[in-house]
């Protein structure tokens, strides 16, 4: 064979080498279908199996991941299936959808993390969150109800919540701390449930403007029933605010060794103790549903508003499942009599009412101090008399022993 003749074996080696190179390229750059298989290798059946294992597994793990108990979960699923448009499908059951939704709002994680955790695609998580937010908005409308005129003692407060908005519209969402937030106006009952929530106001809106906006929307204020609110709202009908320029916050009282020195300080102290219920309730909601601590950029501002309504509505739903002590007949009669008295005797001017409350509280406080002073003096007097008696008894006993 001539030296310059082509070598067929070398050509075969070259062809096989090229095929191997192309195969390596295909393995190194997987297709879209391959990536989906990596995220969800078992399909919808594997996701359903994971959900069933979570339902039948340990109660503690279930609560840590979904932030509700199994009993609460089943009751929530029953209510949603009957009263909302969130339904199960042939590929994903309602229980699985609800678990994914609760996992996202409870852990505050991204949709990608939830997709990997449950073994579903991220697009499925996005659709579940969209339908879930609408369903939980129905829960909010059902369980977050404003009080009737016969109910008493509610406390409103504004709380800033982190928000994400496009760069071109961020200016009006900056709050006084230079953070992008939305203002949320909440009213809370004494049992720690929400009676009113207004979300979606820009972070730059002050408390007084926010209250006026809420009253123009749906907030009801009664002349003979009063909310307990912050001084930033301003004195108005149906709202009791503290005295400005007087010690107010509990931390200020904690570091001080002196108690209230006048009626204004006593009023502010008791006002702060009552209004702390709102701070505690909002803190518990943020600890339970971690998505309330921040707003990822994967949600637009409309969905961020729905997140607030969903979490507060779910909070009231869970609180409604708890057993509450019922009022006895004497307590109901007392409330009815106080309601009738307040309707006929309370002044309509909020500042006059605040002064009357402060004066009555101060007089009761002074009477209590005088009563306690007399009681302590009587105790000290009895101790002194007993001490003298013991000394006389010892002297007499010593005299008898000497004799």
Automatic annotation (TrEMBL):
One of its GO terms (cellular component) is nucleus. Belongs to the HARBI1 family. This is Uncharacterized protein. It comes from Gibberella fujikuroi (strain CBS 195.34 / IMI 58289 / NRRL A-6831). InterPro entries: DUF8040, HARBI1-like, HARBI1_dom. The lineage of its organism: Eukaryota, Fungi, Dikarya, Ascomycota, Pezizomycotina. Residues 156-316 form the DDE Tnp4 domain. The keyword Transferase does not apply. It holds the Pfam family DUF8040. Residues 48-136 form the DUF8040 domain. One of its GO terms (molecular function) is nuclease activity. Residues 1-22 are annotated as: Disordered. Keywords: Hydrolase, Metal-binding, Nuclease, Nucleus. It is found in: Nucleus. The keyword Nuclease applies. Its cofactor is a divalent metal cation.
